[in-house]
Structures are given as structure tokens and as C-alpha cells.
Design brief:
The chain is α/β, with parallel strands linked by helices and 330 residues long. It is built from 10 helices and 14 strands. It folds into 2 domains: 132 residues, NAD(P)-binding Rossmann-like Domain (Rossmann fold); 173 residues, Dihydrodipicolinate Reductase, domain 2 (2-Layer Sandwich). It is globular. Helices cover 35% and strands 24% of the residues. An 8-stranded mixed beta sheet has the order 8-9-10-7-11-12-13-14. 38% of the residues are buried. α4 packs parallel to α5. β5, α5 and β6 form a beta-alpha-beta unit.
């Protein structure tokens, strides 16, 4: 079986990519590029890096590289994805893979033309033991008919917006940058796509800072079966970084909040029964999807995040952003 050469672009979260690749016996070498030369030096000291490139283009055009792993700033992803696919590279990309509908369509078309290439994205919450169990519970009708869900992406690190690179990106989207994790969980658990979307936003938390963005977005999504979901991207909250989930079914309720992780049901006397969720949360490493990605390249193993699912959740994120523009016009 062929061993693969990997190029990692971006050494923030990209360091986690490096760790994931180095754990695989099928990776021959890991190469890197980052505009920050100090980061490059630090990574070279910590890991066995074969080569340092001077630009993303130099890396992507190198015929020795099989995989491009993209962990750059959000507004660089699309260009690097397109260059990689056009240069016959497999792609592992941090979310979001792009920023608008035209870019998404172009990526979709390139994947259709290059069916030999594997691409996936790092919506890694699906690897969480707790959410994997909940997925099985959905499949087994454990909750009964689920009529309402709440999924909140509580970022809880406002300083990273006001002082970091995110705030410097024009029209930075908290939906694409964070809420996408909850939307991916929602589509995965429901196994369906919403038919109606209504969304609202504000910038109360970043108001008065140099980097003013819409730091809070909330959406109501209705599905064909009549069920409704509320999904929020809350970047300015005074709250630990957390993925809050509420599932309301006719038979059972599940609550994951900072203080409790509990299943609720009724006994024959209509008294509330409580059962604590035992599975770990988040219980994941940020490189957990990489082994599956490598296996898909080498053995055609089914991707945990399929290309169809990757494109679908991106479509939903962009439709939420579109719905915000419609709301603002009213």
C-alpha cells in the first residue's frame, strides 16, 4: 500500500493535523507552510518535518505531495481547495471550505470532475462518544418523535474575535466559523434538510471594538416532518466554550448543558425519571477524522463526513446567512 506525503498549510489548528498524520503508518512525510516564520520554527522543533515551503502555491504544485491539509484563515480556504483539486491533491480542510454560494458550486463541480480525489472537512463533533450514542438513539427511536431541538455553539472567547484574525476578515461569519458544527450535528441526527429558515443577528458584544462583527446569530429551522430546531452561534457569551444540546421527543428529553447531561422520561405514575449520560463529551481530539480520511484515500473506506454531507452543511450555513440579509431588509 502506497505511503502518502502530506502538506499542511497553517500551523495553528494545523498542528493538530500534523499530530494526526504522524500517528498513521501510511504517512511517509509531513511538510509545512505558514506565513508566520516563528510558528514554522516552533513546529520544526517539535515534530519531524521533512520540508518547509515558502508559499502555499509552491506546496500545492509539488508533484511529490499527495494530500493538502488546509488549516489557514477562513478566507484562504476556497483558493487553496481549488488549487489543490486542480493539482490532483486529496484535501482535508478545516471548516468552512468556502464563503459563498459561487465558491461552493465551483468546489462541487471540481469534485464531480475529479471523482478519484477524496475531500472532507473537520466537523469533528461527530466523533464524540456522546453524540455517537445519540445518533444511535435517533436511529432506534429512543426519543420517540422528536419535535424540537436546540443546538447552541457557545464560543465564549470574545477576545479572539476582537483581537484575533477572525475580526479582521471582512464580513466574518460566526455561522461558518462555529455554528457549522451544530448544523452538521443537526443534519446528521435528523438525516434530513430543513424546508424553512428564519434568522436574526446582532453585534452587541463586539460593539465599540475595532473589529465589529455580527457576533450572535440565531436561526429557526423547520423540517418536512413538522419538527423545528433552534440553532445559535454565540461568540460573545460569558460562558465556557461549549456545545449545548436539547432534544425534545414524545418519549424522552435529553439535556446537555454546562451543569447537567441528563435524559428525562416519565414512569407509569407520570413522575419524572432522570438518567445521567455516561458517554464522554467532548471526548475527542481535533485530529480524530484524519485516520478515516487516510483510509478513504487508500482503501475507499466510507468517509465519516462524506463529500455530500460536507457540501450540504455548507449550503445550509450559506442559506442561513442569506436569510439574515432578508431579515435585515424587513
Amino acid at each position: 500500500m502506497k505511503n502518502l506525503n502530506v502538506g499542511v498549510i497553517g500551523l495553528g489548528i494545523g498542528e493538530q493535523h500534523i499530530i494526526g498524520y504522524l500517528k498513521s503508518k501510511y504517512i511517509k512525510s509531513v511538510c509545512i507552510f505558514d506565513k508566520d516564520k516563528q510558528k514554522v520554527i516552533e513546529i520544526q522543533k517539535k515534530y519531524p518535518i521533512k520540508k518547509v515551503y515558502q508559499s502555499d502555491l509552491e506546496m500545492i504544485c509539488d508533484q511529490e505531495i499527495d494530500i493538502i491539509s488546509i488549516a489557514s484563515y477562513d478566507d484562504c480556504h476556497f483558493k487553496q481547495v481549488v488549487m489543490s483539486l486542480n493539482n490532483n491533491k486529496h484535501v482535508f480542510c478545516e471548516k468552512p471550505i468556502c464563503q459563498n454560494f459561487n465558491e461552493l458550486k465551483k468546489i462541487s463541480n471540481l469534485l464531480k470532475k475529479n471523482k478519484n480525489l477524496v475531500m472532507t472537512t473537520n466537523t469533528v463533533l461527530r466523533c464524540s462518544p456522546r453524540f455517537k450514542k445519540i445518533k444511535k438513539e435517533f436511529e432506534n427511536n429512543f426519543f420517540g418523535k422528536v419535535y424540537f431541538m436546540e443546538l447552541d455553539y457557545n464560543y465564549g472567547r470574545l477576545n479572539k474575535i476582537t483581537n484575533g484574525w477572525r475580526g479582521k476578515i471582512k464580513n466574518y461569519s460566526v455561522v461558518l466559523g462555529g455554528g457549522i458544527h451544530m448544523l452538521d450535528l443537526l443534519l446528521w441526527l435528523k438525516n434530513s434538510y430543513p424546508k424553512k429558515i428564519s434568522s436574526f443577528q446582532n453585534n452587541i458584544c463586539t460593539k465599540g471594538s475595532d473589529n465589529l462583527i455580527q457576533d450572535f446569530v440565531i436561526s429557526l429551522l423547520q423540517f418536512n416532518d413538522g419538527s423545528v430546531a433552534k440553532v445559535s452561534s454565540n461568540f460573545g457569551c460569558i460562558y465556557p466554550h461549549f456545545h449545548r444540546v436539547m432534544i425534545y421527543g414524545k418519549k424522552k428529553t435529553f439535556e446537555q448543558s454546562f451543569r447537567t447531561n441528563t435524559y428525562l422520561s416519565l414512569n407509569s405514575d407520570n413522575n419524572i425519571l432522570k438518567e445521567t449520560a455516561k458517554e464522554k463529551y467532548p471526548g475527542i481530539y481535533k485530529y480524530d477524522l484524519i485516520d478515516n480520511f487516510i483510509s478513504s484515500i487508500l482503501t475507499n473506506k466510507k468517509l465519516i463526513i462524506s463529500q455530500k454531507q460536507m457540501l450540504s452543511v455548507m449550503q445550509l450555513c450559506l442559506e442561513i446567512n442569506k436569510s439574515l440579509k432578508l431579515t435585515n431588509k424587513e
